[in-house]
Amino acid sequence: MRQDILRDESGDLLFANGDFATGQSDQQHVEDIFDLQPGELKEFPLAGFGAINYIKKTITADEFKRDLKIQLNYDGYTNATIDTSKGIENLNIEI
Fold first, then answer.
1. Residues of the chain with pLDDT under 70
2. Which of 21, 29, 54, 93 could lock onto 14 through a cystine, CB 3.0 to 4.6 A?
3. pTM
4. Contacts of 68 (CB under 8 A, 6+ apart)
5. What integer pLDDT is reported at residue 40 of this predicted model?
6. E strands present in 3-91
7. Nearest by Cα to 75 from 49, 40, 55
8. What is the tens place of the pLDDT at every residue in 30-44?
9. CA atoms within 13 A on the CB side of 89
């Protein structure tokens, strides 16, 4: 379980007692990987799934899951379970 500065649902920083709020951040990291484009992070140019790129792509659920698992593995989430049984639009990622 990773600890980091927390953000709210809109991506704004959370504060507690006049300082940044910290806490369990694995879900935040997964959301970041899902949204980031490859190359968007200078320190880690291979990191980033780029979900927006899959909107108009013809791709199977297995290909989608494989690509996402590769990106999650880059950040150390080796046992992620990706559920697309309700469609890619209703994606569920368990870490």
1. none
2. 21
3. 0.83
4. 34, 49, 80, 82, 93
5. 93
6. 3-5, 15-16, 19-20, 22-24, 81-83
7. 49
8. 999 999 999 999 998
9. 1
